[in-house]
Design a protein that fits this description.
It is a multi-pass membrane protein. GO terms for molecular function: nickel cation transmembrane transporter activity. With about 240 residues, the protein is mainly α. It has 7 helices and 2 strands, in the order H-H-H-H-E-E-H-H-H. It has one domain. A hairpin with a 2-residue loop joins strand 1 and strand 2.
Length: about 240
């Protein structure tokens, strides 16, 4: 069905997509979102929607650039990466502000006879109604799209130097995206483990994990902004 060269390119794209999920800025952004939902199910769903948004943006930008035979200028690529740094700082500050101002705490209750734990705020709602994982898909989707836009320049350099046609280019982006989705689902599950474990230890341990996620996101975001601002680049 595929010639050996195409199979090699697609395999490479899939492996690089898996590896791409482990980038530090991806881990920092994901941790701030899943730290609010201390369950493996919610964390893997967040990873999936992050990867989906990332892939959709890469396909939109990559398909357009391939069709027009264009590349993203270095100055614009740096601007996109700087915007990701700003987003990481905002995500970290947003999580810290939410915990502090909305009086978040851990609360165990039942749905359909199944007990589970949720991050919960009586300051916002007097009862125990809350949204589940599928209702919080938009935020990680948009965050993934922002990361996809920032990473599109580097990906297109690889694509243009590897593929021999627009069909191979789109195929490469698709399998790269599938790899990144699977990678982010796995990363989400792994990163959820210390969060879930801290819930069993107690509120103080959970807040410490939350605090680490805040500091990591803010610190990495500031580092990205400084390095890009000084002309050193990030990726």
């Amino acid at each position: 069905m595929f010639d050996p060269h195409t199979l090699t390119i697609l395999s490479l794209g899939f492996v690089l997509g898996l590896r791409h999920a482990l980038d530090a800025d991806h881990l920092a952004a994901l941790s701030t979102v899943l730290a609010e939902r201390p369950t493996v199910q919610a964390s893997t769903a967040i990873g999936f929607f992050w990867g989906l948004g990332h892939t959709l943006m890469l396909l939109c930008v990559g398909g357009l650039l391939l069709a027009l035979n264009l590349t993203i200028p270095d100055t614009l690529a740096s601007l996109f990466e700087f915007a990701v740094g700003v987003m990481l700082v905002v995500l970290g500050l947003s999580l810290a502000r939410r915990i502090y101002r909305e009086q978040w705490h851990l609360h165990t209750h039942e749905h359909d006879g199944q007990p589970h734990v949720h991050l919960h705020s009586h300051h916002l709602k007097p009862d125990h109604a809350h949204g589940h994982w599928y209702q919080g898909s938009l935020r990680p989707l948009l965050i993934g799209m922002a990361h996809g836009l920032a990473g599109s320049a580097a990906l297109m350099l690889i694509v243009l130097s590897t593929v021999t046609g627009i069909g191979q280019g789109i195929g490469y982006i698709v399998v790269f995206g599938v790899g990144s989705i699977l990678g982010m689902v796995g990363v989400g599950a792994i990163l959820s483990l210390p969060v879930v474990y801290s819930v069993t230890v107690g509120p103080r341990a959970y807040w410490m994990v939350q605090g680490l996620a805040c500091l990591a996101s803010i610190g990495l975001g500031l580092l990205m902004m400084v390095r890009i601002g000084l002309g050193g680049g990030w990726s």
